Amino acid sequence: MKIGIVGFQGDVQEHFEMFTRIANMGKNVSAIIIRRENELDNVDGLVIPGGESTTIYKLIKEYNIYDKIKEKFSEGFPIMGTCAGLILLSKNTNDPRVEGMGMLDSEILRNGYGRQGESFIDLINIKGIGEVPGVFIRAPVIKDTGTTEVLAYYKNQPVMIYSRYALGMTFHPELTEDTRIHEMFMKMVEGEGYISTGEGIGVMTK
Ligand code: GLN
Predict the structure, then answer these.
(1) Domain of residue 173, CATH code
(2) pLDDT single digits (tens) 167-200
(3) How many domains does the chain have?
(4) Of the listed 14, 39, 71, 83, which one is catalytic?
(5) Which structural domain range is residue 191 located in?
(6) Are strands 149-154 and 120-126 parallel, antiparallel or unpaired?
(7) For position 197, what pLDDT does the model report?
(8) Where are the alpha helices (DSSP H) in 104-173?
(9) Of 71, 98, 111, 183, whose CB is crowded by the most CB atoms within 10 A?
(10) CB under 6 Å to ligand 1: residues?
(11) Which helix (H) or strand (E) covers residue 108, if one does?
(12) Could you confirm whether 172 is annotated as catalytic?
């Protein structure tokens, strides 16, 4: 499978290396960095990295890939967003500078944990995976999860959500050596979407 990574700003290389690591473990995956609209047609799924959501938003608008991503999503194209990526996938960002794409029915408070200095790392427990290190960097808070399913909480706050073809988290799995969240996304890509089994995510029979 081929995964695209939106490549303007943020943790682009880190996501790329994560898929390379998974490929080196013997799985059939390759990643490409995407900066042009037509490149979206060559991939099976997409990652929007962590970084600065206002900047990524500006550039994906300018390069005409914002609408193309939305259009492809409506046809069942799976997308994962980490941190700034989650902000872009959400319905309401509460910030006029970032118009969310609405793939996740969530409402976001940008920088909800505070400033850069309030960044932290702690273990989080993810449904269907178990404990992973959560790297939170000027992370957003999910104020309302809407119709999404919550896959992880940290101190009673939802930090990872999904619905249909979209998976989003307020932390950065790409900054760890743990490949399991990226592999979870690959399963979404393989399964053409997921529904809840109550035990984490399970394959949707389309
Ligand atoms: N605070 C950033 C934003 O709102 C997100 C931080 C991140 O991706 N680490 O874009």
Answers:
(1) 3.40.50.880
(2) 999 999 999 999 999 999 999 998 745 544 455 4
(3) 1
(4) 83
(5) 2-204
(6) antiparallel
(7) 47
(8) none
(9) 98
(10) 50-53, 83-84, 87, 110-111, 137-138, 140
(11) strand 104-109
(12) yes
